From TrEMBL:
One of its GO terms (biological process) is response to stress. PANTHER family: BCS1 AAA-TYPE ATPASE. Residues 1-29 form the signal peptide. GO terms for molecular function: ATP binding; ATP hydrolysis activity. This is Putative mitochondrial chaperone bcs1.
Amino acid sequence: MSFLAPAKALLSAAASLAATAMVVRSVACDLLPSELRSFISNGIHSMFSRFSPDITLIIEEMDDLDNNQIYEAAETYLSSKISPTTQRLKVSNPVTDKTFALTMEPNEPLTDVFRSVKFIWILVCRQLESHSFYNPRDLKSTLKSEFRSLELTFHKKHKEMVLNTYIPYILQQAKSIKQETKALKIFTVDYQNIYGNIGDAWVGINLNHPATFDTLAMERVVKEFVMKDLERFVRRKEYYRRVGKAWKRGYLMHGPPGTGKSSLIAAMANYLKFDVYDLELTELQVNSELRRLLIGMANRSILVVEDIDCTAEFHDRRTRSRAASGNNNDTQLTLSGLLNFIDGLWSSCGDERIIVFTTNHKGKLDPALLRPGRMDVHIHMSYCTPCGFRQLASNYLGIKEHSLFEQIEEEMQKTQVTPAEVAEQLLKSRGIETRLEQLLDFMRKKKETQEMEAKKKQQLLDFLRKKKETQEMEAKKKQQLLDFLRKKKETQEMEAKKKEQEAEDEEEQQGKEIDDGSEEENFDSDDDNNEETSLEQFLDFMIKKIETQEMEA
């Protein structure tokens, strides 16, 4: 009994204290302004926190008028750390992501362990008055009615580790998570907004291309080389910085149409989780437009210029200087502008970018485009090979072996058939046997067609060769005739000069005799001179005609 009395007294005192506290709280809520209540609450919390070994970091959603990158990274990171025991979660499906997003609910603690250190995260939401949450840089701010922040609580002795290691780790992990879950996009140029805001020059839609390196109809050695080259590129940021090069990589894909150049680009984008920017050079007028588009591209992206040999006609850099005429290179799209875009100063305004050029005719490209540093890797997209065929058979038919494979591969080595043509034949009919037989028949017919075309080309080549030989013989005969006429003309000129000299000498010796006989002789000599003049004119005419024909040829 003696023990129960003090216990009852303590309970009574505690109840009285609690009742008093409730009354005081009620009075404070009714009489004190919210700002004063918050000040008193923070003061009491600060007083008690001095005796706590823990420290709390406040990470607010907004940093002045900008989004807080640490808050966004922490929110993404914590979504992957949600425990199965968590009772309340918020689920959403953002347009830019491929999966559902799970986020914390307010006041629901979440525990994370990093390097054996325990961290407690809590999402805090505070209601805002209607006039205080408008953000002119956030179009959705008028719909927000709360202020959100994350509170990170941990032991004081780990403060340096949190600031120097834990938070940078969260930023890096969040970046990786976003790359894994984001929906890839393909962008094209909005030419109406090319001189507006730089960010509005590109418009994009989701890229849902299914191509991967596992499904590409290419030689295994080539696929492995490209994959290793891409992996090496993305992890060598510090190396590029150390050697003083822009963090970019250039690929030239060349080969006949239908050999899988576009599919390889899509596979690269899916492999690296890079967005694709498709640039059509024929729509650009000046170099300045090219620079604006480069600035508007995001990092971790692939720039694609297809059919570079025919999409734009660049002005030859070897033509006369335009400085004398006062023209500026910015008034036109030039080859030098494209080269500066690839590896000049403007190429360093972004990081982790891949530039891909495709062409059906590599020989038509300017050699300046092909050198290392601009197009670092040249990938020849060949006709379908036995290895590529087996990959297509696995993709379309779901088989690894068949009795017709050997015949098909034998015909494939003798026939130029593209992976696109093979895929088309494998899609036509039902039944594995039927489709393989159709493919074999298609290749045999194509082989016959190619042999006929090759025969016609050879016949045409022989005809042109014979015609060239005939023309060379005719030209040789003309040259011989021309040489003969020139020599004859020279001989006649020498004879005429000799006769003239003899006549002068004879006149000096005999003098001039004027009689009928001499007049008749002069008349005869005039006739001889007229004949010589006519022959000279004929020779001059023939020489000029032959020279004219040579110039026309």
